[in-house]
Write a structure and sequence with these properties.
By secondary structure, this protein is α/β, with parallel strands linked by helices. The chain has 17 helices and twelve strands. The structure holds NADPH dihydro-nicotinamide-adenine-dinucleotide phosphate and (2Z)-2-iminopentanedioic acid. The site of NADPH dihydro-nicotinamide-adenine-dinucleotide phosphate has 24 residues, from helix 9.
């Protein structure tokens, strides 16, 4: 018995060493790409038990293959601003992994966009899309373009130039982009128009998140935020808890944040704070969502404008201060690494019960550690925010069938997808000896399907 145990320990150690070695190579081959390293490290740390039980993944070099995107394109995006001056941005598309379907994932327009950000997002997307149970591979793209302060004409000219190049690489069965930070239905509309003009044909399924009048799906706008709340509600239900009567803090005030707030409030929670990149608002009466929607979606103002209409509310500069607001449930829905260890510790000290990641990789690795060590229920991004891309895949299905489903039909499918992701992640965590750890569970459940498909398709 002792010998078997000793051999098992030795084997575990050698698997850990192998994983460590592949990770060191990733760092060496992708220097200065901190976000990409972080995303890979989180997944790799989760995979040791699955690699121990399945040596074929090691023999077939699945990790080595997964850290190398199938293809990355980087391109010049020239456009003319309202003053007649030529501006140049850098565009990207990473076609990360097509083992289980066409590349699928959003486009981000934000000045911080670079290869590291796009690769971390593409890597995450591969496992997230696998978790949805739908036939979609992983992709991501974007540009270091800042839509803030640009006129509609400037945004249109930028989108047209961006699509003139991107159109060479995408298609309804090849690669299907959608929105992300800085890209909503307006930008998707401009890009779709340009794609259609260049192709000379109506390929509705080439982009998702389209307007409802030309192939968009009902519930896509709401899907990421609603899905995150559905996922967290399932997680709470398992512990005999729910959103009802809880105090909730949601960072950001964009697409994901607004609809997470809406669904949390619908389920009986009081949402007391939200933010933008400048600062956060706190409203002890509960955030008035109609005001937030008008300020952000229609008037495109800063969130600070809220307090002039709601005198009880307080605006504070510095967006990370939002994590000092006491709450039962925290939903980070803004951007990567918005919760560091100090903020995580603050949330724990203030008694947070659950954290649900609506954004991609919003918690640093040590923040995640802090939540898990303190028994906070933790819903990781790949699982919790998969509702957006899941409904994108439903949009593709509707486009292929040339029909549209009702809001209720799509919402119902979204709820059942989120429940499945929760159950599959929970089950994988249990099966591999870390019950309740949804980080490990989601990573394993997402990985196994992609890895098996890669093996079945041979070395390509
Ligand atoms: P939006 O552009 O609609 O909103 C982004 C929000 O986050 C804004 O309030 C913005 O504030 C804030 N924000 C952006 N960057 C920063 C930053 N560097 N520091 C602080 N705040 C910031 O984007 P989405 O709501 O679509 O995306 C939010 C997150 O959710 C991202 O991580 C995205 O990858 C993820 N996600 C999005 C999905 C979707 O379907 N849209 C699906 C799954 C995940 P400001 O206006 O000041 O910039
Ligand atoms: O991060 C994400 O999952 C998204 N931005 C949505 C991608 C999509 O294809 O709908």
């Amino acid at each position: 018995m002792k010998t078997i145990e000793k051999n098992q320990n030795l084997y575990t150690k050698s698997v850990q060493q192998y994983v460590h070695q592949v990770f060191e190579t990733v760092k060496k081959r992708n220097p200065n790409e901190d976000e990409f390293h972080q995303a890979v490290k989180e997944v790799f740390d989760s995979l040791v038990p699955v690699l121990e039980k399945n040596p074929q993944y090691i023999n077939q070099s699945i990790l080595e293959r997964l850290v190398e995107p199938e293809r990355i394109v980087s391109f010049r995006v020239p456009w003319v601003d309202d003053q007649g001056k030529v501006q140049v941005n850098r565009g990207f598309r990473v076609q990360y992994n097509s083992a289980i379907g066409p590349y699928k994932g959003g486009l981000r327009f934000h000045p911080s966009v670079n290869a590291s950000i796009i690769k971390f997002l593409g890597f995450e997307q591969t496992f997230k899309n696998s978790l949805t149970g739908q036939p979609i591979g992983g992709g991501k793209g974007g540009a270091d373009f800042d839509p803030k302060g640009k006129s509609d004409g400037e945004i249109m000219r930028f989108c047209q130039s961006f699509m003139s190049e991107l159109s060479k690489y995408i298609g309804p069965d090849t690669d299907v982009p959608a929105g992300d930070i800085g890209v909503g239905s307006k930008e998707i509309g401009f890009m779709f128009g340009q794609y259609k003009k260049m192709r000379g044909g109506y390929e509705a399924g080439v982009l998702t998140g389209k307007g409802l009048g030309y192939g968009g799906s009902l519930t896509r706008k709401e899907a990421t935020g609603y899905g995150t709340v559905y996922f967290v509600e399932e997680m709470l239900k398992d512990q005999g808890e729910s959103f009802k009567g809880s105090t909730v803090v949601v960072s950001g005030s964009g697409n994901v944040s607004i609809y997470a707030m809406e669904k949390a409030a619908e389920l009986g929670a009081k949402v007391v704070a939200c933010s933008d990149s400048n600062g956060y608002i706190y409203d002890q009466n509960g955030i008035n969502l109609e005001t937030v929607k008008r300020i952000k979606e229609v008037e495109k103002q800063r969130i600070s404008a809220y307090v002039s209409e709601h005198p009880d509310a307080i605006y504070t500069e510095n967006c990370s201060g939002i994590w000092t607001v006491p709450c039962d449930i925290a939903l980070p829905c803004a951007t990567q690494n918005e919760i560091n260890q100090i903020s995580a510790q603050m949330l724990v000290s203030n008694g947070v019960k659950a954290v649900g990641e609506g954004a991609n990789m919003p918690s640093t690795l040590d923040a995640v550690e802090t939540f898990l060590e303190n028994n906070v229920l933790f819903a990781p991004a790949k699982a919790a925010n998969a509702g957006g891309v899941a409904v994108s895949a439903l949009e593709m299905a509707q486009n292929s069938a040339r029909l549209s489903w009702t809001f209720e039909e799509v919402d119902c499918k979204l709820q059942s997808i989120m429940k499945n992701i929760y159950q599959n992640s929970k089950q994988a965590a249990q099966e591999y000896g870390v019950p309740g750890n949804l980080v490990v569970g989601a990573n394993i459940a997402g990985f196994v399907k992609v890895a098996d498909a890669m093996i079945e398709q041979g070395v390509i």
